[in-house]
């Protein structure tokens, strides 16, 4: 390869990177408090909308104050889809073994994920989540506790979301995720193109509901399969 072609390829690469940088900056919506995280926010939105064909849907979050996002869990792509549809940063509660996944712990820590050790000290994660909600942040979690497909046998959801709502008065914002390729997988769905969808469901206000009644309502809402 001669020098002139190398120079042209280098110029082309610089132009592509500059274009991508500008597009990511324009697509960014949530303010993560760091320039590189805001860039990633924009990149994720472009990736989910262009590659996974996610329609532009904005989760109805309050402009200020805490809220709790709850969703069905069908793949490892789900958190990226939720982030791409949110105008505010989301703090996910995730299993400690996922938080400590090789090569990703630095990113999970940077975006404020809350690891939960379900065997030894689950209340530590609960305390962190309560503080975050009272500080006006958005907590996101998957109440089924792990990937659970509509075709799987019924699974009782965890009580954490209902407890958080009851203790803080934060509204519960349920979502249903669908259209992901290779459902049931963790990494493969991130890279296989699908027709991802996020369905907004009615917001659940705490009111005078007990934690048990809130939990039942979350279960009914997330497990109700919408008509095709």
Notes on the protein architecture:
With 228 residues, the chain is α/β, with parallel strands linked by helices. It has a single domain (52-223), classed as Glycerol-3-phosphate (1)-acyltransferase (3-Layer(aba) Sandwich). 43% of the residues lie in helices and 12% in strands. The chain has nine helices and six strands. The protein has a six-stranded mixed β-sheet, with helices on both faces. The longest helix has 25 residues, at 3-27. The mean pLDDT is 93.
Which features does this protein show?
Glycerol-3-phosphate (1)-acyltransferase, 9 helices, elongated, alpha/beta, 228 residues, single chain
Strand content: 5-15%
**Oligomeric state of shown chains:** single chain
Please trace the helix and strand order, writing H or E for each element: HHEHEHHEHEHEHEH
Which CATH architecture would you pick? 3-Layer(aba) Sandwich
Strand order, sheet with most strands: 3-2-4-1-5-6
Total number of helices: 9
Map the helices and strands.
Layout lengths: L2 H25 L7 H17 L15 E5 L6 H7 L6 E5 H4 L5 H6 L3 E3 L5 H13 L3 E4 L18 H9 L3 E7 L9 H4 L5 E4 L10 H13 L5
Parallel strand pairs: 1-4, 1-5, 2-3, 2-4
Antiparallel strand pairs: 5-6
Q: In summary, what is this structure?
A:
The chain has 228 residues and is of the alpha/beta class. Helix content is 43%, strand content 12%. It has a six-stranded mixed sheet with strand order 3-2-4-1-5-6, with helices on both faces.
């Amino acid at each position: 390869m001669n020098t002139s072609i190398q120079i042209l390829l280098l110029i082309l690469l610089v132009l592509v990177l500059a274009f991508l940088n500008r597009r990511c900056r324009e697509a960014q919506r949530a303010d993560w408090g760091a320039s590189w995280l805001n860039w990633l926010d924009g990149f994720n939105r472009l990736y989910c909308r262009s590659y996974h064909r996610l329609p532009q849907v904005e989760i109805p979050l309050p402009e200020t104050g805490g809220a709790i996002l709850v969703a069905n869990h069908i793949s490892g792509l789900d958190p990226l889809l939720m982030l791409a549809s949110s105008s505010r940063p989301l703090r996910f509660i995730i299993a400690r073994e996922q938080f400590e996944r090789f090569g990703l712990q630095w990113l999970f820590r940077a975006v404020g994920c809350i690891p939960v050790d379900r065997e030894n000290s689950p209340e530590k994660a609960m305390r962190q989540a309560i503080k975050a909600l009272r500080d006006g942040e958005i907590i996101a979690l998957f109440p089924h506790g792990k990937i659970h497909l509509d075709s799987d046998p019924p699974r009782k959801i965890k009580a954490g979301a209902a407890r958080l709502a009851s203790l803080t008065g934060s509204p519960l914002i349920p979502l249903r995720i669908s259209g992901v390729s290779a459902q049931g997988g963790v990494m493969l769905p991130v890279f296989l193109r699908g027709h991802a969808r996020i369905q907004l469901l009615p917001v659940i206000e705490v009111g005078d509901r007990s934690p048990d009644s809130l939990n039942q309502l979350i279960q009914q809402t997330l497990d109700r399969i919408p008509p095709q």
